[in-house]
Amino acid sequence: MKGHIKPISLAGSELKEIRHVCALFNNEDEEYRVLLPFIKDGFRSGDKAVHVVNADRQSEHMQRLAAAGIDTAAAQERKQIDLRTNVDIYLKDGCFDQDRMVEFFEQLAASNEGQFKLSRIICRMDWAADGFTHLDNLIEFESRVNNVWRGRDDAVICTYHLGQFGGDTVIDVMRTHPLVIIGGILHPNPFFVPPEEFLPDFRERRGKQTTGDPIFAQL
Question: 8-182+195-211: what fold?
Answer without folding.
Answer: Rossmann fold (3.40.50)
